[in-house]
Amino acid sequence: QVQLVESGGGLVQPGGSLRLSCAASGSRFSSYAMAWYRQAPGKTRELVARISAGGGTNYADSVKDRFAISRDNAKNTVYLQMNRLNPEDTAVYYCYADLVLRNYWGQGTQVTVSS
Asked: Is 85 helix (H, G, I), strand (E, B) or coil?
C-alpha cells in the first residue's frame, strides 16, 4: 500500500511559478515510476509529466520547456516545478505512483492561474 500526499497548489498570476510536492509512504520509493496528471473542469485527466525509477522524464507537449519533474528518493518525494503558468494550466493536479501491477493516486491539489 502506498499513500500519496500532494501539497503546493494555490492561486498564481499568469506568468508565475509554483512547485508541487508529493510525499509517498512506504518503502521502495526509488524502485517505481512517478507521474503528475491534471484534470481541468469538463475535461479528461491527462498526463503532465512522468519520471522513471532511473530518472528518465517525459512531458506533455503543452508543458515542455515550462515544467520540470524531479524526485528525491531520500525523502520519498516527487516534485513538479511549474514556470510561466497560464490560465490553461488551471486544474486539479494529481500525483500517481506506477508500481506496474498496482497503481496509486493522491487526493489532488488545486492550481488556479488567474489575474
From this structure: coil
Cβ neighbours for 102, distance < 8 A, ≥ 6 positions apart:
none
* Per-residue pLDDT reduced to its tens digit, 59-110: 999 999 999 999 999 999 999 999 999 999 999 999 999 998 899 999 999 9
The CA distance from 22 to 7, in Å, is 6
Q: Please, are residues 103 and 85 in contact by the beta-carbon 8 Å criterion?
A: no
Planar angle of CA 105, 2, 53, nearest 5 degrees: 85
Cell digits for 100?
506496474
Q: How many Cβ atoms are within 10 Å of 83's Cβ, its own excluded? A: 14
Using an 8 Å Cβ cutoff, are 69 and 36 in contact?
yes
